[in-house]
Amino acid sequence: MFIGHFGVALAAKRIAPRTSLATLIVGAQFLDLLWPVFLLLGLEHVRVVPGITKVQALDFYDYPLSHSLTMAVRWSLAVGLVYYLIRRYRRGAWVVGCLVLSHWVLDFLVHRPDLPLWPGGPKYGLGLWNSWPASISLEVLFFAAGIWIYISATRARDRIGNYGLWSLIALLFLGWLAATFGPPPPDTHQLALGAMAMWLVVPWAWWADAHRDVVRSAETQLAASQAE
Q1: How far is Cα 80 from Cα 78, in angstroms, rounded to an integer?
Q2: Does any domain span residue 228?
Q3: Of 66, 67, 50, which Cα lies nearest the Cα of 58?
């Protein structure tokens, strides 16, 4: 899954309005941000196998450090704790931590049985990548719902708040189209370098989100009433 993860990050803004969209995206994509680093370091491995699924041509045969369930739980606790220590925002820490774990859950829906429960453990996956309609429908549903929830939870403060957000959304959508319908990468090294480009989304999301205001929510109303 690709844009589905970003959809979950966008939607999380309503639950944790004080957390930057950039941080929410880091949470939702944390496992995939680690993965290319581990590939380049030789700690994890993948093969390009055209036809292994109808949608993706990648054989994720060895990625226990980034994508096993037990490691995802540990990463989620670590990321949530670090965020809390820096920001002291308890709700945001829980949300960011849950976003890290949500990545494994969403991947479980689309991956073939290649997601280990623990390093060296049994592997699972529902395999929706073997169905074009199911895979695309799920991605678009999560992404569209996330955009709608984010837009309803925030409003643009200026023109950058509009252009920055919609250019980010366009970039993500076009990147998904290229990854889904384009040719497979020539080798795993190029795949890892291309995946590293995902880090560029983080400052872009921060920039767009910084120019948007949170619509007054139940959380902010309660805080205001307690302050009065």
Answers
A1: 5
A2: no
A3: 50
CB 106 within 8 A of CB 1: yes
The torsion angles phi and psi of 111, rounded to 5 degrees, stand at -70, 150
Domain that holds residue 24: 3-214
**Separation between Cα atoms, residue 92 and residue 113, nearest integer Å:** 32
Distance CA 46, CA 60 (A): 5
Amino acid at 76: S
Number of separate domains in the chain: 1
pLDDT (0 to 100) of residue 49: 95
Looking at the domain assignment, is residue 223 inside a domain?
no
Calculate the alpha carbon distances from 165 to 122, 136, 205 in Å. 40, 22, 7
Residue 93 lies in a domain: yes
Give the alpha-carbon dihedral of 104, 67, 182, 23, to 10 degrees. Answer: 60
Which tens digits make up the pLDDT trace of 150-179? 999 999 999 999 999 999 999 999 999 999
* Phi, psi (degrees; rounded to nearest 5) at 218: -60, -35
Q: Model confidence over 84-136: pLDDT tens digits? A: 999 999 999 999 999 999 999 999 999 999 999 999 999 999 999 999 999 99
Position 43 in a domain: yes
Tell me which DSSP letter residue 111 carries: S
